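User: I've been going back and forth on whether these two constructs are worth ordering. Before I decide, could you fold them both?

Assistant: Sure. I'll take them in the order you sent them. The first construct and its structure tokens:
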Amino acid sequence: MIIARSAIRNRVGMNYAVRSMSIAKHFDKVVLNVQPKKPKVVDYYIPYGTFDENGNKLSTNIVGIPVVPDARQKLIAQCEEILREITIGIPKTAQYRVNVERIFQFRLKVAKETESIYEIEKSIRAGQIEELLNQGNGELKLLKRMREWKPWEATEQQKKEFDEETNIIRARLITRACEHTEIFVGKPCQTTSFDGKIPIIDVHH
């Protein structure tokens, strides 16, 4: 009886081993030799307005922001106006002027080289073209205030206080890993920056 039981156990064990080898061979052929699928390339920014088959915008899908007729031409004119205004009363070396010129030179370049509103929004990555125009209107108002405030004439003590506050904000952005953190802290995560250039900023300053 003991010998019979032992024989049964051996036979069961052999069947288990054979089955395991069979499964392993199956995975070797079917799974392990299969090439991994290439990851899908996802656009960083996808415009969320509604367009017809001809590329005309039908709706922004944002409450309170209607479609702007001739938006591309208006964006070009606005960028040119901002780039003119920034040269009046604001030194070339002022960081505010440097930032504004980078942003709006890039937007102007895209708007001039691209006729499609969809592609303009996709390239600039800062909202729909109607939102870009709103941003530009806000910048024109801020320009006048900046001429009055003259932050480029700040004292060393004021600069020191500003740097301390800035470093606190940078630390919070890094911790939260915000979508556009790289623009502020100079450490790219998803993209380089709003104009494709890596900002040169010392995060540990």
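The second construct, handled the same way:
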Amino acid sequence: RLHKAKMGDYYKFNHNDMDSLRKNLERATKKVAETGGGILVITEGVFGMSGKVGSLDEIVKMKEDFNFRILVDDAHGFGTMGPNGRGVHEELNCIDGIDLYFSTFAKSMASIGAFIAASKEIVMFLKYNMRSQIYAKALPMPFVVGGMKRLELIKKHPELREKLWENVRAIQTGFKAKGFDVGETTSPVTPIFLQD
């Protein structure tokens, strides 16, 4: 909704296709040179329908050629991907290249709410300019305390994530052995594609 409000044009790049992204960045860069403004690339860490991991490291590398910011929706990666559960950007070793990192507490933390991690300047801008936040209520304290405890578990108990991955490998291998098509998932998201 923000992009149509008063934020200018938007271009779609083909799903996880870096050539398509590069072409659209070239178009957007020309537009910005004419009109001013900036470029924001929005993508996912783990694509929720396929389980494929987004090419965040390749997108970050494109910052060498283009001036843009990246917003990553990592609802399915936070808590499950990377050596410390920080998400796909940790898994692909490109944390410093991500400008806005968004995730939910509803997946790996089994709760409600969400968060965005960014520079203080960006967070304050969003806090005071997003209509949905102007009259929003804070999470109830039990959810905050529970969330902090779950975050501590993610950080201090990698064996829980290791067990998750053991279960993921078992179920994906089992489905494949029974003839199910789980696609090319490289995450805990396990789709089953039905054939005609």
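Notes on the second construct follow. Residues 158-177 form the longest helix (20 residues). The first strand starts at residue 40 and ends at 44.
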